[in-house]
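Example record for the data management plan.
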Amino acid sequence: MVRLRELIETSPRDIEDKRLPVFLGKDVSGRPLTIDLARMPHLLIAGRTGTGKSVCLNALILSMLMTRRPDEVRMLMIDPKMVELSPYRRIPHLMHPVITDMKKAEAVLAWAVDKMEERTTCWLARGSGTWTATMTWAEGKVLDRWDSTTKRISKPSRFPSRCHTS
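Corresponding structural encoding:
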């Protein structure tokens, strides 16, 4: 069994070097295996029942909770089943309480898309190709600090079909 705490304690450099470190486990030689979620444009966790999707999702969330302060990462969590994400309902990293109502979820996701488009417009106008370059430029110029907002959606297949479009 690989414990998340052990991975984090044996990987202090990964915590420093990665903006959003996610501890996945160990590689074949026993070294901690980590990724930087900030460098991944998209992530889909899929599989049959019992294949570890929830375990993966929890490792992802806990990695960020254990290595980043609430002012460093903010989360939106949508849980149509009303149980999978309930253990996180009181974490300070939440931008909004865990959302279980699909009408609210649709509105929050529309807001997130608007924010994403606003940031993309700024990036294009600025001509900066990276988050770091944009944040360096925006320091002191933007009233609304752009945090690393992550969205966690448990069971996206339960959304109305219009929510699947980007």
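Summary line stored alongside the record: The chain has two domains: 1-68, 74-166.
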